[in-house]
Amino acid sequence: MRIIRKSKAIFADKSVEKEFLELDENSDIKKNINRALEEIEKNAFCAIPIPKKIIPKIYIQKYNITNLWKYDLPDGWRLVYSITTPNKIEIISIILEWFNHHDYERRFNY
Fold this sequence. Notes:
The protein is an alpha+beta fold and 110 residues long.
């Protein structure tokens, strides 16, 4: 049985949000990220969980995360986010980064 839990999607910090806002409104990547954000808000657990042992240290150091999820976007792009529950009611999906397949492999040392 699949867990479905609504969440609020936010950007990890101002620089991630700025990068998103600066994307061309008509670009495929912005449209695809917007669709991903909608799906993540409908179900925080809609993506693929990344095993804890391969979470890049930069995410742990910079954002103090304990979990990571990978959402596959079209054309080999990936969006990664973490889920937090600041209280027993609210779920927050924190958007950390999106990148093409090559940059994703470099980030995860594949």
